[in-house]
What does this fold into?
Amino acid sequence: MKKVCMLCAVLLCLVLLVSCTGQGALPSASVSESVTASVSPNTSPSPSDLETPEPSESPAPTASVFGETPDQAGDSEVLFDIYKSQALADLNQDGTPEQLEFTANDASSTFSINGTAFTVNKGGLAQRFAVTDVDKSDKILEIAFTDKYSDLADSEKAFTWLYWWNGTNLICMGGLMDVKYDGAWRSGFDPKQYFDAEGLVTCLTRTEHFSDVWYNGHYKCSGTDRKLKEELYATKPVNQQEPLTLKEYCLLLKHCDSQYFDPEFSVMWDYASGTSTMPRDYSDDAVAFIPQAGEELKIVAVLGPYWFKLQAADGKKGWLKCIDMKIQGYYQVMHYDAHDIFDGIIIAG
It folds into this structure.
């Protein structure tokens, strides 16, 4: 009986052991997987959650700025902006700047405005151009091209050529002697010496109609093509003038007035007329004085290329007009040229 009771107790223990084992903890590996699954986010989305990504836009390219920063030789009063190759400038003052490009060549050069190319028929130009304003009131800007510094000696006279654009054509206005801003000339260049921005342009000018004389000529735009035309300003020669010696007496005028060369004044210029007997210091409304043979006279002023003011040793002054070495008045009546009346005339070489 006691054995039976012990056997039953063992069996009961076995049943309880099996029951506990069926409801016990999982193996360590299973526990680990369960914890991981419960705390880790789901990194593998279902197919329904996937979307096609939109392509990102490429960044727009940075727009290149046309033109250069100018060398501003002028100021707020006188515009003179110097460029090497490219510029933006409102040539016709309509609010929209034009794109300007310049390429210098030996025989001729090319200047483009908004892509339209124009030929500049001047040889030896520097790779340089300027935008200026001859007259601020006309709403037109001008372009200036200049001679190359390396091609000329300091004793040679360089030129700057003025052009303007009428919307269709590039038109040459004329050349300005000794206006130069390329190379080593740039340091001494001051546009106010040549432009007043009110329409007047001043530059070195030469006349060889009588004796070789250099002076500062004054110019303004004229006509529909705006060509530079010389204005008559009395000005002193800029080169040294040696005295001229009279071979014959020579009547000099008080005023620069071409009416005195009309036929009704012929008697004034006739050596056989009463003027041959008039005293040296004779003067009237037309005549300043009548210097005599042997006197020395010096050119002290010019008025344009044809009028010359002569001064005697005693300070008396008077005008004569000479065109192509023909002294007006005397040439029409006596057919005398400058060499018939004067010694010492300088002929340009």
